[in-house]
């Protein structure tokens, strides 16, 4: 992966913590800063679709463990175009 050089202003106390962590971990200070930049980028990215893009009709109450399993199985069967009788469905 190619990298691009940039300059940033950082708090001296933060840089001291990074220096100490780099020494303790046996990596460069730049590597720790790159990891921090990557985490910030991932935390602030915008996705094309919501994390939970599928919405399933609920029954208006909290389901038991078996109820969740059955509801998820029913939804998968419907999505695959199965008949819902045996819960197996067929791959589309």
The CA-CA distance between the termini, in Å, is: 37 Å
Estimated helix fraction: 40-55%
Determine the structural class based on helices, strands and strand pairing.
Answer: mainly alpha
Q: Quote the beta fraction.
A: under 5%
The H-and-E topology, N to C, reads as: HHH
Global Rg:
24 Å
Number of helices: 3
Total DSSP E strands? 0
Q: How does the major sheet shape up?
A: none
What is the arithmetic mean of pLDDT? 82
Low-confidence stretches: none
Shape: elongated
Q: What are the defining features of this structure?
A:
92 residues, single chain, mainly alpha, elongated, 3 helices
Can you walk me through this structure?
By secondary structure, the chain is mainly α. Helices cover 50% and strands 0% of the residues. The protein contains 3 helices and no strands. Helix 1 packs across helix 2. The protein is elongated and about 60 Å long. The two termini are 37 Å apart. The model has no long low-confidence stretch (mean pLDDT 82).
How does the SSE layout of this entry go?
Elements: H1 12-25, H2 29-44, H3 65-80
Helix pairs in contact: 1-2
């Amino acid at each position: 992966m190619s990298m691009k050089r940039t300059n940033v202003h950082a708090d001296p106390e933060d840089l001291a913590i990074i220096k100490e962590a780099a020494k303790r971990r046996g990596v460069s200070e730049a590597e720790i800063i790159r990891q921090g930049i990557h985490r910030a980028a991932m935390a602030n990215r915008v996705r094309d679709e919501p994390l939970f893009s599928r919405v399933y009709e609920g029954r208006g109450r909290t389901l038991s463990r078996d109820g969740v399993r059955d509801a998820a199985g029913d939804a998968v069967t419907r999505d695959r175009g199965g008949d819902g009788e045996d819960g197996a469905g067929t791959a589309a």
